[in-house]
Amino acid sequence: MKITKDLYQSNLVLLTDFYQLTMAYAYWKSGKGEQEAVFNLFFRKHPFQGGFTLAAGLDYVVDFCKNFKFEKGDLEYLAGMKNKDKSPVFEQAFLEYLKNLAFTCDIDAVEEGTVVFPNAPLIRVRGPLIQCQLLETPLLNIINFQTLIATKAARINIAAQGEPVLEFGLRRAQGIDGALAASRAAYIGGCTSTSNVMAGKLFGIPVAGTHAHSWIISFETELEAFVAYADAFPDQCVFLVDTYDTLNGVKNAIKVGEILRSKGKEMVGIRIDSGDLAYFSTKARQLLDEAGFPDAKIIASNDLDEHIIASLKSQEADINVWGVGTKLVTAYDQPALGAVYKLSAIRMADGTWDPKVKVSQQLLKINIPGVHNVKRYFTKGKAIADMIYLEDQDIDPKSVVIIDPIDATRRKRLMPVYYQEEVLLKPIFKKGEKVYDLPTLDAVRNRAAEQLESLDKTHKRLVNPHLYPVGLEENLHHLRMELVLKAKKFDNGMD
């Protein structure tokens, strides 16, 4: 997948916030630019008030890092930047440094399609401070959006209870890349196809679509329009029936379906795009069944999301396929995931790691220090808990206690010896060289389905889901508290 080359240019190294470049310059000036550091990308709360999040976007991250290089045009642009006194923002020696900068970081990440939870790292970057810093904005841009959309798609597919969900959002998406990334993420989240033909070409996603109301009204009558469409596409006829009168539209579709049948073809179904979907789908099903078309599908669209689909399900609507657009590709009810990227450790001159913590009056915003990873524990194929732990810390196989990062009174004892386990952060790059074989998009989609299946159904409720246990291993919890108390000097906030 070469999304950056197909749509933009050979690299996107300037797709960053200006302050990342000013910090990089200041690191270089202070002599800290090559000091080794560890940063973690994570989020603090599930989107959509849900109980799970579905990781997506790693493929784009790999593509970005493989093409990480400051080229002639990038350096010329930076050289042209001026301070208020007309002096250059960046001195020439720094631009020469950027010119020769080669990507040498280690990156470990959860695989795409993995179910993930707050505070646990999705990506860990280890390398020179300057490189780690320059990766912050693009990694957040990529992971935030695709993870958000994959999660929304998964929720919509859960509401659809196994019935196909078609992604129809191209025309309402946030620009070209927003549309393409959304189509890809929606497919990971379980959608069966997209209306976006370019996404079909670039990613191999099945494409689907019928016709619009404009097709109908371009003819003198609806029946004439259906006949003409059946003549053009006899093997894939889905008729949009709500241009004038929905139930009369169904009857016209039946008439054309009978013509198709006389030619040895079968009508695929009808689509309803407005009105009372529960009522009209039920009536349409009756008409189709009575006319001898019990296998004809009823597709519904019209600003659907997981809550509307769940409501229609509870009303026993006769809908077989769901077309979802705007509210999926724009993550209509939560436009951003809010993942962050925080420094957690600095390598000292003696080779040891100095763990770092950002202190805040809000416990939610205190990051997790040190070089840490995540283990997921399973029993009988079901995920039971995630543990965030220091990589250099021995874990007792008989008994460990995990402590909630936000509420230290919430604790869970685990007995690892009785469980299966998976280390979630997998090596992607080592010293700048890719060591991970990217799976196909279908393999990612299958992993997402398997991951969701491993969660108890209570964690997948659309409303008021049960909290999945994620905690800090005791030693990491104590380290974090020690650093927080040291930074606060024991009296901060007590005035």
From TrEMBL:
The UniProt record lists the keyword Hydrolase: no
Residue span(s) of domain Nicotinate phosphoribosyltransferase N-terminal: 14-144
InterPro entries the UniProt entry points to: Aldolase_TIM, N/Namide_PRibTrfase, NAPRTase_C, NAPRTase_N, Nic_PRibTrfase-Fam, Nic_PRibTrfase_pncB, Nicotinate_pribotase-like_C
Xref: CDD domains: NAPRTase_A (cd01570)
GO cellular component: cytosol
Role played: Catalyzes the first step in the biosynthesis of NAD from nicotinic acid, the ATP-dependent synthesis of beta-nicotinate D-ribonucleotide from nicotinate and 5-phospho-D-ribose 1-phosphate.
Protein name in UniProt: Nicotinate phosphoribosyltransferase
